[in-house]
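To the team - molybdenum atom complex, inputs and output below.
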Amino acid sequence: MTATEPTYRGRARIAEPGEGIGPDELALATRNHGMPLEALRYDVTPPGLHYVLTHYDIPAVDPATWSLELGGAVTRSLRLTLDELRSRPAVTSRVLLECAGNGRARYEPRPVSQPWLLEAVGTAEWTGTPLAPLLEEAGIAAGAVDVVFTGADHGVERGVEQDYARGLPLAEAMRPEVLLVWAMNGAPLPPQHGAPLRLLVPGWYGMAHVKWLTRVEVLDRPFDGFQNAVAYRLKVGAGDPGEPVTRIAPRALLTPPGWPDFMTRERFLRPGPVLLTGRAWSGRAPVTAVEVSTDGGATWSAAELAPADPAHPFAWRSWSFAWTAEPGSSELVARATDAEGGQPTEQVWNRQGIANNLVQRVPVTVLG
Ligand SMILES: Nc1nc2c(c(=O)[nH]1)N[C@H]1C(S)=C(S)[C@@H](COP(=O)(O)O)O[C@H]1N2
Ligand SMILES: [Mo]
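Output:
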């Protein structure tokens, strides 16, 4: 290696038309697993079936010596051990998480990164303590605008060496639903989900829920770190500033009906009555309707949507649709709508492959 060669080579790339998934994307896909869609049947995703997305490595964190620092533009900085956090008022909240990159590999052309199809989602019962009272105890300075959350994980991304860190507008950080979380589904957080402590920002895409949290810093200026200023921006041109990625757009998914072919994942059913079921969610407004098409989107019918559960406003909702399967090929499609609109049936492309809530299409063969 000569001195003029750059040390770090990673760069953003869009796949060539028709280019298949490469070894770099395959390596990411084997580390970062999705939720098998049959797990949509559970209200709460069982341990191990929740999706995982980790930019760098799962860091080694010793919970016995770990502590959380809360500082920056505050009257007095705080340092809290895990025991001190756990002795504070605890809340358990059922919250859906979805990676902002869910659907990326369905874009044409495909932005080269973690190649999610539709499985980067899960719903867990998270236990932790609200963040807002801690920020209030520290005393937020007048003029504070952002709160930055930093993880213990370290890596390099498109040539920029960094600790994973995300800024959140102060008003969002102060929402009562925002938690510092130490348990998932009643058990201590597993290493891959951020042990010993992670942030939970209900309604926001996954990147905001910082894992392996070590530091909370109040800023009197907008955070300009990589994960806010460069990554997680909705933009088409490489030079566009783009819009920041925030809340989860609406989506409905079908619990895969019938049975799959091992290799192609094509699905088969027997003719007759079939109850199609699935889940729908949105992080920006309550879901108002789910519609189903059994003819590839030519005609749509209203599905039965479970009533909103006031105990779990940030969880997914179940829906069902009674179908009579006739022999032959069909394409099943589902789409969710919230107060701000519905899912697109044509792709709305962006160069980071973010927030692709294009409707899911499930081709099925009904046997004769
Ligand atoms: N410290 C840290 N926090 C992180 C990440 C990360 O790489 N490092 N990935 C984020 C992204 S992009 C997502 S989608 C969620 C995934 O959370 P999960 O793995 O618990 O499902 O964690 C977020 N928090
Ligand atoms: Mo993500």
